[in-house]
Amino acid sequence: MKLFYQEMLGFLLVIITSIVIIGSSTIHFATIQAYSQSYSRLEGYGTSIGKLALAKDNPRHELDAKFLKNLQVVMEGEDVNLRIFNNKNRQVYPETTMNWALPQKLFKQLKNGKTIRIRNDHEDGRVTSFSNKDPYTSVIVPWRSNGKLVGVIWIGSRVQNVEQMIVREKHNLITALLSSLVIGGLISFILSYYISRKIKLLSSATKKVAQGDFNVHLKHKDTDEIDDLARNFNIMVNALKESNDEIKAQEKRREQFMADAAHEMRTPLTTINGLLEGFEYDAIPEEAKPKSIALMHSETKRLIRLVNENLDYEKIRNNKISLIQSRFNATEVLTNLLTQMKQKAIQKNDKLILDCPSEVEVYADKDRFTQIMVNLVQNALQFTENGKIKISAWRIKHGAQFEIADTGIGMSQKQMKYIFERFYKADPSRAKIGSGESGLGLSIVLSLIKQHGGKIDVDSEPGKGAKFTVTLYDKGYKEFIKD
Q1: Who's near 272: CB < 8 A, 6+ residues apart?
Q2: CATH code given to domain 3-165
Q3: Which of 139, 196, 383, 389 has the smallest CB count inside 10 Å?
Q4: For residue range 118-159, what is the model confidence (pLDDT) as tens digits?
Q5: pLDDT, tens digit (0-9, with 9 covering 90-100), for 324-365
Q6: Ranges for all domains in the chain classified under CATH 3.30.565.10
Q7: Are 156 and 138 in contact (CB under 8 A)?
């Protein structure tokens, strides 16, 4: 069953249930009121007639038969009948040859001054011995003088007269309830349509997202829970869109990496294969053999480096390496680094500058710290020509900071957003042979720094170089640093 019909049925069931409960209560109340009013009216008549019988000028407490006959004529106008019994429980009006009497149980209660109410004498069964053909609603009122019973009056009205009022109330109630049902049904239809329409829109939007369309946006007014769901749906779709865009970008970078890796591997493999064939067929002169062997060594190392960078990144990313951290002098590591990188800097016509005190204590894994600095300096050399690269270090409170600043091509804000992601190259057209061309260098740097509990910041503008600032904290202090 569709939600629209479920909503309609639900609303109608609530309305019908409410109508039944209210209707039953109202009819019950109207019935009680009708009989209460009838009892009060009849008791009023009985009490008034009793006052005449108990008047001071009537010491025998007897009412004239002619008066009672005339009174009965008046009472019949309101469809009211009466019977009078003396203190001996004998009917004295209307006169009858039959020995009409009240049941002894009732008469005993009347002697004690209790007024008896009978809703339907045919159903009650206590006074059927003197009731008429039609059922009556009646009261039996005792007349007492000086604490003694002097007479009893039975006064009643046909039940149908009382129930006419109830029937009229039922008709009015049924008319009102039918009107309420029609209006309620219309309101239910409107509400069901309103709710179903919003859910239908949400369902349609969900199907589009499932088909890969992330440009879906649901309008909402924040008026109910469905609007909250629509708002959360929009947030989810935006997140999925960003994630999908990121996956596509990662896939594009992966494809580029595979192409670059294939290219980088093909070149040294081709070189090595050509030289091996030359050796096999003795096509390489003796004087050229040492240079050829050195070239094969160089190309082999390049292949090993490409493979190792990938393996190293996977181990670091999956926390499969163990850091052996200790305190050491970072200045010594940086001095050795400049010595190693000097030849590469000369090839690029770059100037390496070390600006730090003779001793800068740092708490880190020495080998991994060296790897971080090597990758950052290689990255600076890769994108800097005819410029300078400055490496600075200093102590800060609870740690040490290191800055690698170059005067190279720089980066835009968009490029800085992705430079630490795997396979990303800020400027693929400027990538050269050497470490860093795989697009993994900075990814490894970020992973290692995170495992040390440190942080790295980047500041750059296109054409104005780039500055990387690494912060490594002392032992124990990183535990209090927020991400």
Answers
A1: 296, 299, 300
A2: 3.30.450.20
A3: 196
A4: 888 888 777 765 556 778 888 999 988 888 888 898 898 888
A5: 899 999 999 999 999 888 888 998 899 999 999 999 999 999
A6: 321-480
A7: yes
Residue 137's Cβ-count burial label (10 Å; 0-12, 13-18, 19+) is buried
The secondary structure of the chain, three-state, reads: CCHHHHHHHHHHHHHHHHHHHHHHHHHHHHHHHHHHHHHHHHHHHHHHHHHHHCCCCCCCCCCCHHHHHHHHHHHHCCCEEEEEEECCCCEEECCCCCCCCCCHHHHHHHHCCCCEEECCHHHHCCCCCCCCCCCEEEEEEEEEECCEEEEEEEEEEEHHHHHHHHHHHHHHHHHHHHHHHHHHHHHHHHHHHHHHHHHHHHHHHHHHHHCCCCCCCCCCCCCCHHHHHHHHHHHHHHHHHHHHHHHHHHHHHHHHHHHHHHHHHHHHHHHHHHHHHHHHCCCCCHHHHHHHHHHHHHHHHHHHHHHHHHHHHHHHHCCCCCCCEEEEEHHHHHHHHHHHHHHHHHHCCCEEEEECCCCCEEEEEHHHHHHHHHHHHHHHHHCCCCCEEEEEEEEECCEEEEEEEECCCCCCHHHHHHCCCCCCCCCHHHCCCCCCCCCCHHHHHHHHHHHCCCEEEEEECCCCCEEEEEEEECCCHHHHCCC
**Proportion of the chain above pLDDT 90, given as a percent:** 18
The residues of the chain that CATH labels 3.30.450.20 are 3-165
Kindly tell me if the per-residue pLDDT of 225 is higher than 70. yes
- Assign 390 a pLDDT band (cuts: 50, 70, 90): very high
Tokens 């009838």 identify what position? 38
The two tokens of residue 61 are: 């407490």
Q: How far apart are CA 39 and CA 166, in angstroms?
A: 15
Task: List where CATH 1.10.287.130 sits in the chain.
Answer: 225-313
pLDDT of residue 317: 60
Beta pairing, strands 388-396 & 351-355 = parallel
CA dist 475 and 363 (Å) reads 6
pTM of structure: 0.43
Instruction: State which CATH number among 3.40.50.1370, 3.10.100.10, 1.10.287.130, 2.30.30.240 fits the domain covering 225-313.
Output: 1.10.287.130
